[in-house]
Amino acid sequence: MNNDKALIPDQIIVGEQLYAEAINIILDGAQRELLIFDQDFSHGDFASKQKYELFRQFLNKSPSNQLTIILQDTNFFQNKCPRLLDLLTTYGHKMAVYETNESVKHAKDCFILADDQNYIKRIHIYQARFKYGLNDLASASLLNTRFKELLDATHDVVVISKLGL
Question: Cβ(37)–Cβ(120) under 8 Å?
Fold first, then answer.
């Protein structure tokens, strides 16, 4: 990461590449739980091999690790993120992907919360302005509460099933 100096926690940062790199920091440091809310995974380089590897490493760290993703629209995830779909097939017992119902489609921010203490929050999906924090229990607690509210507003879960002949 050649832009490390620009990735300073607890400050507003601008830029798509920096956003993707900051996500990597949060994913790489996750030890037991990842909670993700995003519009559709089209921003943040989620379709990349690097993100796939970070998610796979996280899911392999411990049998009890959990990854929960809430998306407002699952089309990009299902059509442009085949590696992540593969993870859902392999780790469906510790990974879940939900789609929100209409009541929260107006939300335009997105965030990742790791282990109830580290986070990244994109302020608006259409602007690459974000903030991330490490060991920030107060902000993480607010995001955890918000995630639970968003989870209550989901209507569908993405299910991958292997069909055999």
Answer: no
Closest CA to 132 of 123, 141, 108, 100: 123
**Degrees to nearest 5, angle at CA 130 with 136 and 10:** 35
CB 69 within 8 A of CB 38: yes
Buried b (16+ CB within 10 A) or exposed e, 33-71: bbbbbbbbbbbbbbbeeebbebbbebbeeeeebbbbbbb
The tens-digit pLDDT sequence of the chain (165 residues) is: 444 457 999 999 999 999 999 999 999 999 999 999 999 999 999 999 999 999 999 999 999 999 999 999 999 999 999 999 999 999 999 999 999 999 888 899 999 999 999 999 999 998 999 999 999 999 999 999 999 999 999 987 887 655 444
pTM of structure: 0.92
| β partners of residue 114 | 34, 118
DSSP symbols for 29-63: H-SSEEEEEESSSTTTTTTSHHHHHHHHHHHHH-T
Tell me, rounded to whole angstroms, the distance of Cα 37 from its chain centroid.
6
